[in-house]
Amino acid sequence: MSQPLARVDAFDKVMGAVQFGADRVPPGLAHGALAVATIGRGRVVRIDTSAAEAVPGVRLVLTPRDGGELASAGFVMAGGHGFQSLQPLTDDHVAYRGQPIALVVADTPHAAAEAAALVQAEYEAEPLSVDLDADGVEVLDQAAVIPAGFFPDVDVGDADAAFARSPVRVDSVFDCPPQHACPMELMAAVAEWNGDTLTVHEATQNANAVRFGLATQLGIDVERVRVLSPYAGGGFGNRNSLQAHTCLAAVAARRLGRPVKLVVPRSQMFHDASFRPASRHRVRLGATVDGRLQAAIHEVDQQTSRHDLFPANYVEMTSRLYGIPNFRGHQRLVRTDVQTPGYMRAPHEHPAAFAFECAIDELAYATGRDPVDLRLANDTGTDPVSGRPFSSRHLAACLRRGAERFGWANRTLEPGSMRLADGTLVGWGVAAGAYPGSAVPTVARLRADDDGTVSVQVGGHEMGQGIRTAIVETVVRDLGVAADSVRVDVGDTAAVPQHLTAGSWGTASALPAVHDALQELRRSLDLPPTGAVDLRAALAAIGRADIEVQAETRAPGQPPEAIDRLRRGAMAIAGPEFPTFTAFSFVAHFVEVRVEPTIHRIHVSRVVSVVDCGRVASPVTAASQVGGGVIWGIGACLREGSEVDPRYGGFLNADLAEYLIPVNADVPRIEVDFVDEPDPHLNALGVKGLGEVAMVGVAPAIANAVFHATGQRQRRLPIRLENVL
Ligand code: MOS
User: Fold this and answer.
1) Are both 447 and 555 inside the same structural domain?
2) N or C: lower Cβ tally within 10 Å for the chain?
3) Which of 77, 180, 206, 236 to mutate to test the pocket of ligand 1 (most atoms within 8 A of CB)?
4) Which backbone phi and psi does 686 adopt, to 5 degrees?
5) What whole-number distance in Å separates Cα of residue 32 and Cα of residue 24?
6) Minimum-distance ligand 1 atom for the alpha carbon of 240
7) What are phi and psi of 350, to 5 degrees?
8) Which residues contact residue 451 at a Cβ distance below 8 angstroms, ignoring those fewer than 6 apart?
9) At 114, is the pLDDT very low, low, confident or very high (cuts 50, 70, 90)?
10) Mean pLDDT throughout 699-705?
11) What pairing do the DSSP bridges indicate for beta strands 42-48 and 93-94?
């Protein structure tokens, strides 16, 4: 195949031909709407639903008294399936502003929404704490409350002593706000009962969690639940587990004997799904006078909820970014009155890189070294934490190639030294990033028909990242068949088990399974292991009209038991530490900013990003992933922050008018390049993860460019124009 494959589902998406979760309209469909708590913490003491029930077309109103039949699905990071352990409508407790307190179901979505707004609740309010510094928060050492070995602190050498001895020291504190993922497709479920069998259509990254979690919540056999999620309109952590609306739709559908659709509006999504928690980072770096890192201490406070411990995982990446002989990473969890936070693209790596890579830039200035040279001087081929080699590591190539393409050699070191004729300040900044390489057990089923069709059923979810295209490209490259003869089925629990697709392990998990199934197909058809295949002739030769094969793959070092875990609906994630190596993807971002001379508006005017993600499986969707990651990084650095009022709780700017994300005018030319060297260890195809690493390091590259332009260190996100006035 000479030309890279275009996105295989693009045409159907543009034509509206693919079905997302809420697109399904079965006969007799009823519509749900949620009423939510308007206090930040306390108890519902009285709830009046009479006005809601009087709205024409209303069929059912469920209140905190009515969910007694529901069990909690448990928190996904504590062995459960839910984004949080709290299950609304099972008691009168209000844990946070925006928590659902009633569900209304009606013949039309309009009647349901109107009625939900008429639900009247009286509360008994309690004091609340919603930010890291509030009175009444509870601060916990993560290592003391989360089982050892799960998300460990990092302790290599003697970082405190080495820091104290270092001739050059940096000691800075960085603040990152809560942020919300805002996928384009709203949270939505369509629940349909057929006798005692439940089918749910919902956009998710984890059809297994929805399936097994619903079985737990409803107390039914998991065999009686099927979840279909062929497409999701965005995800990146927001949909990585079961959300609260799904079982409420299922309960209502069971009571009414009708299918029920529940679409959660944007404002409620800010409270009914996970979010990137607030975090504060103190970074200390100790180095020799010529900038060789001797010690680093990275301490983090991260927000969690009262009811769950969302694990912090910031130092896993920062301890591997350079060859630092003494490293201490320490993470604390701060309990606040919010829904449980969770994963959002480069969940910990984006804030961690902002803190750490801004501190590295401070070190470059403290030692008078060029920021690219300083990073190259501290590169390593060995994971300093485990002592094992990296499976592959081409960070130096990313830095060198990026510097070349960007024209970095023309940069002058002094802040404020590069100005345009009209006084516009120009800044050039660089930052590196890394993201753990992981993989999960995967089942792939492959069927070839004598009409030339190849059908693939594989564990994985399509949320726009392009997993279908990568799968089709793998089949096309292997068999030499036409792309339009390949059918791909993902996200269907009735086909094969569906592990969570997240953590940038989707491609590196699904493609090896498809690859093994292709090898199995060739063996079954008596074909050589490589070379183009005439499927019709091969099937005719063995006298068959069709053939079906299956493959199961595991990550390196994973025991066979991992497949059983997958089939039981449990998670089975391996990485970044494997028995003989450590796997990370790497990136270098080069950014130019322009700061207007009068009102100091910051504009990102140019970006060059070079990525080491192993072999590039699908060039078209890979370039798009990186472009998207850079745009998200621009948002995360200059725009996005969920505003919190400590008096009331909840998130105030809970819509796309006030939660600012980059628009076209904010996005410059983004040049994307890949090292494209296959990783020799992680899997047979040589691919590592890409989706998240693309965003890691964008924010510090911008902040470092803002420093270069203005001479001001910005250590709090987002950096808005009032910060640089
Ligand atoms: Mo990703 S934030 O693990 O979907």
Assistant:
1) yes
2) C
3) 236
4) 75, 15
5) 14
6) 4
7) -65, -55
8) 536
9) very high
10) 98
11) antiparallel
pLDDT of residue 724: 87
In this structure, what CATH number is given to the domain that contains residue 70? 3.30.365.10
Give domain status of residue 23, yes or no.
no
Using a 6 Å cutoff on CB, does residue 503 contact ligand 1? yes
Please name which of 429, 397, 395 lies closest in space to residue 321, comparing C-alpha atoms: 395
Average pLDDT, the chain: 96
Q: Are 58 and 104 in contact (CB under 8 A)?
A: yes
Same domain, 76 and 149: no
> Is residue 258 located within the same domain as residue 301?
no
Same domain, 546 and 630: no
- Kindly report the pTM of this predicted structure: 0.97
Domain presence at residue 4 = no
| 7 domain-assigned | no
In this model, does residue 2 exceed pLDDT 70?
Answer: no
Domain count of the fold of the chain: 3
Is pLDDT above 60 for 590? Answer: yes
Q: Which of 223, 357, 692, 722 is catalytic?
A: 692
pLDDT for 3 equals: 79
Residue 68 scores a pLDDT above 80: no
**Which of 537, 567, 597 corresponds to the end of one domain?**
567
**Is residue 596 within 8 Å of residue 619, measured between CB atoms?**
no
**Separation of CA 222 and ligand 1 centre (Å):** 25
Q: Are residues 39 and 62 in the same domain?
A: yes
Rounded to 10 degrees, what is the CA torsion of 359, 361, 366, 369? 150
pLDDT confidence of 721, banded at 50, 70, 90?
confident
Give the tens place of pLDDT for each residue, 371-397.
Answer: 999 999 999 999 999 999 999 999 999
Q: Is residue 692 among the annotated active site residues?
A: yes
The reply to whether ligand 1 has any atom less than 6 angstroms from the CB of 159 is no
Domain-terminating residue out of 535, 567, 599:
567
Average pLDDT of the segment spanning 219-239: 95
Q: Is residue 240 within 6 Å of ligand 1 at its C-beta?
A: yes
Tell me, using a 6 A CB cutoff, whether residue 129 lines ligand 1.
no
Helix (H, G, I), strand (E, B), or coil: what is residue 630? helix
User: What's the DSSP call for residue 678?
Assistant: P
Measured distance CA(695)–CA(699) in Å, rounded? 8
Check whether residue 255 and residue 299 sit in a common domain: no
Whether residues 214 and 356 share a domain: the answer is: no
Identify which of 509, 692, 695, 696 to mutate to test ligand 1's pocket (most ligand atoms within 8 A of the CB): 692
What residues contact residue 175 under an 8 Å CB cut-off, 6+ apart? 278, 279, 280, 281, 715, 716, 717
Ligand 1: nearest atom to the Cα of 345: 2
For residues 654-679, average pLDDT: 97
Structural domain boundaries, residue 226: 28-126+184-234+239-272
In angstroms, what is the span from residue 328 Cα to ligand 1's centroid? 26
501 CA to centre of ligand 1 in angstroms: 8
At residue 373, the pLDDT reads 98
Residue 343 near ligand 1, beta carbon < 6 Å? yes
The helix/strand/coil state of 270 is helix
pLDDT band at 150 (very low <50, low <70, confident <90, very high): confident
Residue 65 has a pLDDT of 78
User: Residue 128: what pLDDT?
Assistant: 97
Ligand 1 within 6 A of 237 CB? Answer: yes
Give yes or no for residue 1 having a pLDDT over 60. no
In a domain, 529, yes or no: yes
Mean pLDDT of 422-448: 98
CA dist 196 and 256 (Å) reads: 14
Q: How far is the CA of 255 from the centre of ligand 1 (A)?
A: 35
Q: Which atom of ligand 1 is nearest to the CA of 235?
A: 4
**Ligand 1: nearest atom to the Cα of 347:** 2
